Amino acid sequence: MDFSKVKQAMELKQQLDKIQKELAKIIVEAERGPVRVTANGQQKLISIIINPEAVNPAKTKQLEDNILKTINDAMEKAKKESSKQMAGMMGGMGLPGLG
C-alpha cells in the first residue's frame, strides 16, 4: 500500500474541510421589494425577512414571486462569491489547472 497517497488524500480532505468552513463565513444578501434573503457561501439560506406591511392575504402571488426571485438572486450571488473564493483557495493548494 502506498501510504504517501493516503497521506495526500488526508491532507486534501483537511484542506477541503477548511475551505467549507471559509465558505460558511461568506455572507451575501439579495433584496427585492419587501423581501430580503441572506445566504452563505455554502449556498445555504441564513434568513428570509419579509416586511409585515407586504403581507396581504389577497395578494399572495406577488409576495410569493418576490420571495422566489430574491432567493434565486441570493443563491446566484452566493454561488459567484464562493466560486471566486474557492478559485483563490484551491490555487494555493498547488493542484494543476487551478489558480
Automatic annotation (TrEMBL):
- Name one molecular function that GO assigns to this entry: DNA binding
Q: Which UniProt keywords apply?
A: Cytoplasm, DNA-binding
Instruction: Check the record and name the InterPro entries matching this protein.
Output: YbaB-like_sf (IPR036894), YbaB/EbfC (IPR004401)
Cellular localization per UniProt: Cytoplasm, Nucleoid
Q: Mostly located where?
A: cytoplasm
Does the entry feature the keyword Transferase, yes or no? no
Subunit-structure text: Homodimer.
Q: Which family does it belong to?
A: Belongs to the YbaB/EbfC family.
Function field: Binds to DNA and alters its conformation. May be involved in regulation of gene expression, nucleoid organization and DNA protection.
What is the protein's given name?
Nucleoid-associated protein ABV300_07010
